[in-house]
Write a structure and sequence with these properties.
- There is one protein chain.
- By secondary structure, the protein is an alpha/beta fold.
- It is 30% helix and 22% strand.
- It has two domains: 250 residues, Spore Coat Polysaccharide Biosynthesis Protein SpsA, Chain A (Alpha-Beta Complex); 38 residues, no CATH class.
- It has a nine-stranded mixed sheet. Strands 2-3 form a two-stranded antiparallel sheet. A two-stranded antiparallel ribbon has the order 7-15.
- Helix 9 packs across helix 10.
- The radius of gyration is 20 Å and the shape is globular.
- The structure holds uridine 5'-triphosphate.
- Uridine 5'-triphosphate binds next to helix 4.
Length: 296
């Protein structure tokens, strides 16, 4: 199979974020900040680092803040300039004219449906999918590592991450074939297998490189686990037809759609920061000290 360059990335951001209520009642989950940056910005930067040229957001009602974040903030920028304040913190967020592209998923019918909503913009070329509520920290970033692997093997590549046996019923799970370094052949995929039935404990985190043929399968709108149109089920139908691999990321994943994962991401990233790291570490030390003394 010829390997066409990955130029486009789809960011499905139309989910309801029910696990993070009440924070996500009126605010998009993807605008939650880790330290001082919204999740969506981390994901967009990860894609740009990998050479992605076109950013495609699949949005829904109530997600206007996402669009504003990547636009000019006239009042803010003018006022800051007039007061001689540095704009360094917001430099480079605005994208080139005409980007990002926004399409709407009118109803949250599932991740597969959200990806399919971008079919006209993706067209007939391979593309990446990033779920911004999963924050990936690595050098280079997750998608950059996957693109490098794609340049070797082509076809479809999904992230592959080991989870505890007790967790497999929450995720799309890979049935693994032969492994070679960070790449593992995928022989089957199953979305949210019942406890005790998972073929492995390799789950698919929210990073994908897919061939456009997946859109033709999604077109059938078949419902899977939870009554949703599942991306995993559509991808599974490409196995055996096109190359299909799992890729083990050299880095750390934080599930920021989950409250505990989100707090861990904030702590981990704040910990390493030069500016606030020292005070955060000192506070954590005091917390632990307090617990040892029975006060926390
Ligand atoms: P989640 O499974 O995290 O669902 O979606 P959610 O609705 O965002 O959050 P919870 O579970 O209710 O708390 C994974 C990704 O897929 C997108 C979400 O925005 C998120 O980035 N998604 C999901 C859609 O865009 N549309 C859908 O119909 C479902």
């Amino acid at each position: 199979m010829t390997k066409r360059r990955i130029r486009k990335a789809v960011f499905p951001v139309a989910g309801l974020g029910t696990r993070f209520l009440p924070a996500t009642k009126a605010m998009p989950k993807e605008m939650l900040t880790v330290v001082d940056k919204p999740l969506i910005q981390y994901a967009v930067e990860e894609a740009l680092e990998a050479g992605i040229e076109q950013i495609i957001f699949v949005t829904g009602r109530g997600k206007g803040a996402l669009e504003d974040h990547f636009d000019i903030s006239y009042e803010l920028e003018d006022t800051m300039r007039a007061r001689g304040k540095s704009l360094a913190a917001i430099d480079g967020i605005r994208q080139k004219p005409g980007s990002p592209v926004y399409v709407r998923q009118q109803e949250p019918l599932g991740l597969g449906h959200a990806v399919w909503c971008a079919r006209e913009i993706v067209g007939d070329e391979p593309f990446a999918v990033l779920l911004p509520d999963e924050l990936m920290v690595g050098t280079p970033g997750f998608i950059a590592q996957m693109v490098e692997a794609y340049n070797d093997v082509g076809g479809n590549i999904v992230g592959a991450l080991e989870v505890a046996d007790s967790e497999t019923d929450k995720y799309g799970i890979i049935s693994p074939g032969k492994s070679d370094g960070r790449l593992t052949e995928v022989t089957a995929l199953i979305e949210k297998p019942k406890p005790g039935t998972a073929p492995s404990n390799l789950m698919i985190p929210g990073r994908y490189i897919l061939q456009p043929e997946v859109m033709r399968i999604l077109e059938r709108q078949e419902k899977g686990a939870g009554g949703e149109i599942q991306l995993t089920d559509a991808m599974a139908q490409l196995i055996g037809v096109q190359p299909f691999h799992g890729f083990t990321f050299d880095g750390q994943r934080y599930d920021c759609g989950d409250k505990a994962g989100y707090i861990q991401a904030n702590l981990a990233l704040a910990w390493q920061r030069e500016d606030i790291g020292p005070s955060v570490r000192a506070f954590a030390e005091r917390l632990l000290q307090g617990r040892r003394e029975g006060a926390v």
